[in-house]
Amino acid sequence: MDLTLLVDYGPALLRGFGVTILCWAAGCAIGLALGFALMLLGRTGLKPLRWAVRAYIEVIRGTPFLIQLFLLYSGGPVIGLRLEATTAGILGLGVYGSAYFAEIFRAGYQAVPKGQVEAALSLGMPYGGILRRVILPGMLVSTLPAIVNMMAILTKETVVLSIITVPELMYEMQTMAAETFATFETILGMALFYWLLVEAVSRLGRRAEARVTRFLTHSSNARA
Amino acid sequence: MKFSVIIDALPHLLGAAVTTVWISLLGVMLGQVIGVLVCVARQSGSRAADMAGGVYVSFFRGVPLLIQLLLIYYMLPLIGIDVPPLVAAIGALSLASGAYVSEIYRGALNGVPHGQSEAALALGFPAPTIWTRILLPQAFRISVPALVNELILLLKASSLISVVGVAELTRTSQTISASNYRPLEIYLAAGLIYLAINGALAAFGALVERRLQQG
């Protein structure tokens, strides 16, 4: 492979990588926030609301991400929702992730021992306080592996955004491949790059897990 | 929203959906074969086979499917094999699914009590027989829910092969909406078809699971 290509296309690829990271980070943030909100909405006493949340999750999880992106980006303007490719990409990634995050949070919420919530209630803590200081920390510990896994999956999904012309790394790479005819080398390089990226996200996640669950080993030591 | 648009396009969309389904089924079946072979190779005790299998699984689970697909699509002509996009697409889907399937089987094998293969060894069963008559049938039964899940994931992932021009459901909806300027209706219809297929697959999976539990 001609190394001068990397010099010529370096800035474009770097910019593309920036967009990839931006889409991923913003998509994850939206997905996590929306997923948490969905989980809370799904726990309310209102039956229609619970059904709506359930339907949302099933529809998002049952359809391909690409179709969701096409609906948002090409179908959106028909009902007056005109979005830039990057905005549509971030929003699409967030909506897609939110359904999976909501399921992760639901399982995490159920895993918090009931006695802890009852104890907090009997101590007179308000619901907001219980949520923030009892349920959330407990959930964080049990759901972190699943959250990290989903975030690694979303790293991989960012390349799909190139199909709706979001100028992220994959898109810049394809432009480069088309202009230089060095198609195979470029794609091979990209495969190796994403391999490392996904591996890095998973490793960072495992480190975060170790940090968050550190107190568990401490407390078990104390008990022993 | 004009529902007549959907009704007009429905025959084409359903035809394309059939393509999507058989491509996914073929991908999952070939993936099943690859996955079992990789899993058995990794457990065979050979260090080299375990490492090669490990790299294969790590690569195909770590690299985005779209890149794998383009890699295979552009690599085959380079080494002198000129195949239609459809073959490259099915190849990519089966290789990707094989990596996940081999991990599913690895997990399922943990669910088969170790004493069984030891007993078979003590009775003088040769290794291939232990695999085909004792380990794999039980691993299969344990992994049915995960395999159905894998089929659903692959069916959704198959939308990506539209990129190399295979006329499956996603590609066909792109073509139709480009000609009638009705992306909202067409993609909505395509989404509903995917949802229906996945719903049917999930129901079928639950049925098979119940059957196997009775058996």
UniProtKB/TrEMBL annotation, chain A:
Domain ABC transmembrane type-1: residue ranges: 13-205
Protein name: Amino acid ABC transporter permease
One GO MF term attached to the UniProt entry: transmembrane transporter activity
Domain of life: Bacteria
Main localisation: membrane
Transmembrane segments: 12-41, 53-73, 85-105, 134-155, 175-197
PANTHER family recorded: L-CYSTINE TRANSPORT SYSTEM PERMEASE PROTEIN TCYL, MEMBRANE COMPONENT OF AMINO ACID ABC TRANSPORTER
Biological process according to GO: amino acid transport
InterPro entries: AA_ABC_transptr_permease_3TM, ArtM/GltK/GlnP/TcyL/YhdX-like, MetI-like, MetI-like_sf
Membrane topology: Multi-pass membrane protein
Family classification: Belongs to the binding-protein-dependent transport system permease family. HisMQ subfamily.
Organism: Azospirillum doebereinerae
Keyword Transport: yes
Any single GO CC term annotated in Swiss-Prot or TrEMBL for this entry: ATP-binding cassette (ABC) transporter complex
Subcellular location: Cell inner membrane; Cell membrane
Keywords, in A-Z order: Amino-acid transport, Cell membrane, Membrane, Transmembrane, Transmembrane helix, Transport
Family annotation (CDD domains): TM_PBP2
A Pfam family matched in the record: BPD_transp_1
UniProtKB/TrEMBL annotation, chain B:
GO cellular component assignments: ATP-binding cassette (ABC) transporter complex
Annotated SUPFAM superfamilies: MetI-like
Subcellular location: Cell inner membrane; Cell membrane
TM helices/strands, residue ranges: 20-41, 53-76, 186-208
InterPro entries: AA_ABC_transptr_permease_3TM (IPR010065), ArtM/GltK/GlnP/TcyL/YhdX-like (IPR043429), MetI-like (IPR000515), MetI-like_sf (IPR035906)
Keywords: Amino-acid transport, Cell membrane, Membrane, Transmembrane, Transmembrane helix, Transport
Molecular function as annotated in GO: transmembrane transporter activity
Domain ABC transmembrane type-1: 17-205
Pfam families: BPD_transp_1
Membrane topology, as annotated: Multi-pass membrane protein
Recorded superkingdom: Bacteria
A GO biological process held by the record: amino acid transport
Signal peptide stretch: none
Biological role: Part of the binding-protein-dependent transport system for glutamine; probably responsible for the translocation of the substrate across the membrane.
Similarity remark: Belongs to the binding-protein-dependent transport system permease family. HisMQ subfamily.
Name of the protein this chain belongs to: Amino acid ABC transporter permease
Organism encoding this protein: Azospirillum doebereinerae
